[in-house]
Amino acid sequence: MTILSPRLLKMASFGAMGALLLLYGYFQLRDVFYGPRLTMSGLSTSDTGAETITLTGVSTDIASLTVNGRRIFTDTDGNFSEKIILLDGYNVLEVRATDKLARTRTERIEVVRRELPRETVAVGGER
């Protein structure tokens, strides 16, 4: 029967504690390693006749969030919803999340707004 020596037991204990400390440190710092996260929901490149669209999504580990350079705000869970007015024709929306270390994550959305034909109404019998 083999008996563990006190020296071997001490080394194994320190090794296990060191491994646990490294694992704990990784889980505490993983957001620092990965940078900002940005997830857009329900919208991609599209073609629409609407005058406005609503950008929705979730961002985590950010210091600021902008749409085409204009700052927007999130709730405490990182959710955001922003109504955007579209111009006629081709629109490019750039959603950018920046963290405290100035790392960025960008989502680019292209939307084409087609002007819907307007009805003309004759007034007073004119044609």
Protein described:
- The chain has a 5-stranded mixed β-sheet, with no helix packed on it. A 3-stranded antiparallel β-sheet has the order 1-3-6, with no helix packed on it.
- The chain is α+β, with helices and mostly antiparallel strands and 127 residues long.
- The mean pLDDT is 87.
- It is rod-shaped, with a radius of gyration of 27 Å.
- The chain has 1 helix and 8 strands; from the N terminus they run αββββββββ.
- The chain folds into 2 domains: 1-34; 35-113, Immunoglobulin-like.
- A hairpin with a 5-residue loop joins β7 (89-98) and β8.
- The N and C termini lie far apart (110 Å).
- InterPro entries: Ig-like_fold.
- Pfam families: Glucodextran_B.
- Keywords: Membrane, Transmembrane, Transmembrane helix.
- The chain crosses the membrane at residues 7-27.
